[in-house]
Amino acid sequence: MFDKRAIGVFDSGLGGLTVVKELSRYMPSEDIIYFGDTGRVPYGTRSNEIIRRYAREDAEFLLKNNVKLIIAACGTVSSVASDIGVDLDVPFFEVVSHAAKSACNVTKNGKIGVLGTSATIRSQKHAEYIKSILPDAQVVSNSCTVFVPLVEEGWYADDDPIVVETAKRYLKPITDAECDTVILGCTHYPVLKGAIKSVVGDKVTLIEAGTSTAIAVKEFLKENSMENESCNVGKHSYFVSDRPNSFKNIASVLLGKKIDDDEIKQVDISKL
Asked: Read out DSSP for 35-48?
């Protein structure tokens, strides 16, 4: 048995492409349909009610494209609106629990830092998952409101002084606490990994939610005979709610490959 339907992935903007990149690395034969809600980014500063509404609309769009599984490649949605998965007709994956589990597996001193949007940090979901595995862990969380706009604007060079100085400010509580593991709690943040690494140093392990989630999805598909067993490279389709051209330029960098014009389509999510 196998399932040729695509994997559906949604995010508030471009950050979820870091999850797509990892899905492609671990499951190259799988088709992927991605929706980036670029017209309403960021989600992290919104109320929980608005985030839930946006997440439900994003998931409904993917369901209309006949996906076999949906991934909320958004730390904010995963933190405050993962309950939307209960009502979906397909399996639903969030990114928080998988990142938390990975952090618990690698930490040596039990001190784990969490970087996220304001909504993600308010939810304390990462700390909740970590404590369920390591009750004595020390979790130091910090909201990084400026990180997402920096990525969306294309400001993410490792040596960009604005990026580096911003990272230093956000990471100070975490470095002061001597955390040996840091969760990049928003899928935009791996784009800033170089700058973050320059601040925390090589002895600190950075946890990317995309990698942890891709591994979990691969295992799930195999266990449930839902893999696409084709030998071909999977087809990827990208949908956005604002300006495909702007998306294309940065997306190609995040994915590490060129995206053709015919792979990107703009949709009006409010009318679907």
From this structure: EE-TTS---TTS-H
Contact 214, 19 (CB under 8 A): yes
The residue length of the chain stands at: 272
Q: Is the pLDDT of residue 204 over 80?
A: yes
Q: Is residue 19 classed as helix, strand or coil in its secondary structure?
A: helix
Do residues 148 and 141 lie in contact, with contact meaning Cβ atoms separated by under 8 Å?
Answer: no
171-192 pLDDT, tens per residue? Answer: 999 999 999 999 999 988 998 9
User: What phi and psi values does residue 252 have, to the nearest 5 degrees?
Assistant: -60, -35
Q: Which residue is associated with the tokens 């671990």?
A: 26
* Positions marked active-site: 74, 186
What is the amino acid identity at position 63? Answer: L
- Span 219-232, pLDDT tens digits: 999 999 999 987 78
Of 49, 186, 53, the C-alpha closest to 115 is 186
Quote the pTM value. 0.90
| Rounded Cα gap, residues 131 and 232, in angstroms | 42
**Other beta carbons less than 10 A from residue 7's beta carbon:** 28
Provide the pLDDT for residue 250. 80
Check residues 11 and 1 and name the one with the higher pLDDT: 11
Q: ∠ CA 159-161-162 to the nearest 5 degrees?
A: 120
Which of 53, 54, 58, 128 is CA-nearest to residue 92? Answer: 58
CA angle, residues 191, 201, 164, in degrees to nearest 5: 50
Conformational region of residue 66, where left means phi above 0, alpha means psi within -120 to 50, and beta covers everything else: left
Contact assessment for residue 179 and residue 204, using Cβ atoms and an 8 Å cutoff: yes
Confidence label for 252 from pLDDT (cuts 50, 70 and 90): confident
